[in-house]
Amino acid sequence: MDEVKLENSLDKTAKTASAVLHPIFIPLYGLMLVFSLPTLYGYIPFPVKKLLVIMILVNNIALPLFMLLFLKAKRHIMSWEMESRRERMLPLFFVTLLYAITSYIVIKYPTPIFIKTYFIGVFFISASITIINNWWKISIHAAGMGALTALALILSLRMYSVTALPLMAVVTLSGVVLFSRLRLNYHTPAQVWCGFLLGFAGLDVICRLL
Question: Would you say residue 89 lies in a domain?
């Protein structure tokens, strides 16, 4: 009986972690991390911060959610998890297009180069996942956490900020998300680890190049 309760508890934890740390929210979490840490970017004028947050909320969270609701109502996707590669194709393309628009706006708007680079990195990761999805079901959750981990590490090492606690928190949450995707049998270990490495390396490489 205790084993059954433990199994149920683990399943609930995995589902909760997958929902709270859904990849659709990761770019917003990343931006809030940039703004909250004691770096130069924490002192960006409030109106600029407000505009960036509102843009992500509308362009990269609300619009994709409405799109998913529409696709589910039309039965183009059978579940929120979009378990098959075919179900994920249209949503991934749409989300990538929205990230391209967001990146373009941020590039044109007078924001620090690191913020521009961050959004370009997010677009690059999303585009890479969309392409890979044509052949393989890589983990989007893991890619999102990989990018968030890379961001925390970059802020810690390159911005000379005391971010040990946030970095440890992000690494721990990444472990929880990776475990959750495996626990719920949505991905294989290879799909999870490749997703994490893609997100981590993708953001790190873009930040080094730009």
Answer: yes
